[in-house]
Design a protein that fits this description.
The chain has helices at about 15-25, 35-55, 80-85, 85-95, 125-130, 180-185, 240-245, 250, and strands at about 25-30, 60, 65-70, 100-110, 135-145, 155, 185-190, 195-200, 205, 220-225, 235-240, 255-260. It is of the alpha+beta class.
Length: about 280
């Protein structure tokens, strides 16, 4: 179902987008979609999580009571709305170039009882960033609930996508003696249903403890520049009929594997350092 949006891509200034993502490492668009659209996304997520739990490797632990599930884009009824949203397109083109690739669709759910995660980034820093000082991937997040502080909101330390540190695998987990830097810079994000954000997954962040009685599901759409390699960690499946139904402007930016029948995605991108809480 197509969703009306408020603006065209040209209404979003590339300089503002780049300033935000190269500066703080995160930007957001309030009210990108109607609340009814977000509620439909929540229903999709609930169905998909129940299916993933029934398959070995279908839901990947990210710590106590916290899970990640990767899904085929056609199982998210609003995927085309996201991929064609003028802000999504404008941000992807400004940071990653006109040949950006959508490589991941999934969701995170911290349930009641989820603990504080250690400070981390989501994957190893590529040479494009360490040497070229360039971002070549983005993560778009869309909350399926109205976030409140008790739900264990996402915390991010702005500007830390450029940090480099030694003594940990792949440079993903800063040493504990550096944590005061991230605690001092931390900003808790409280997005509401319909909001959309974009961030560099290299910016140091963590999920916090969910002390509420409600889960906090968040949809994730990962996007790469042509030289990035994150697609190797994911498995975007599409059926021939779905591929044919996609608008060309979505199909040409999608990295996919064609299957006759959709399969539950067996998770590959395990982050061992997140399996224990940070007490």
């Amino acid at each position: 179902m197509a969703t009306a949006v408020r603006s065209e891509a040209q209404d979003y200034e590339p300089a503002d987008i780049l300033r935000g993502l190269y500066g703080d490492g995160i930007i957001a668009l309030k009210g990108a979609f109607p609340r009814a659209w977000a509620q439909r996304m929540r229903e999709d997520i609930d169905t998909l999580f129940a299916e993933a739990q029934a398959v070995r490797g279908g839901a990947l632990p990210r710590g106590p009571q916290r899970w990640y599930v990767e899904v085929p884009p056609e199982r998210i009824s609003g995927f085309v709305d996201i991929a064609t949203h003028p802000w999504f397109v404008a941000v992807s083109e400004a940071v990653l170039g006109p040949d950006y690739r959508i490589v991941e669709v999934g969701f995170d759910i911290p349930f009641p009882g989820a603990a504080d995660q250690p400070w981390h980034r989501d994957f190893a820093v590529p040479e494009a960033t360490t040497r070229g000082r360039r971002l070549n991937s983005l993560a778009f997040n869309l909350t399926a609930v109205d976030t409140i502080p008790e739900m264990g909101p996402f915390e991010i330390a702005p500007g830390t996508q450029w940090d480099q540190f030694e003594g940990c695998p792949k440079g993903m987990f800063p040493p504990r003696e550096t944590w005061p830097r991230y605690i001092g810079r931390a900003q808790a994000k409280l997005p509401q249903m319909g909001d959309m954000s974009a961030r560099s997954a290299l910016t140091i962040h963590r999920g916090t403890a969910n002390r509420s009685d409600q889960p906090r599901p968040v949809l994730v759409v990962g996007v790469d520049a042509p030289d990035a390699a994150n697609a190797a960690h994911h498995d975007l499946q599409v059926t021939p009929a779905y591929l044919d139904s996609l608008p060309p402007r979505v199909r040409e930016h999608l990295t996919y594997r064609i299957v006759d029948t959709l399969e539950t995605v067996v998770q590959h991108h395990t982050i061992e350092g997140l399996l224990k809480p940070a007490y």
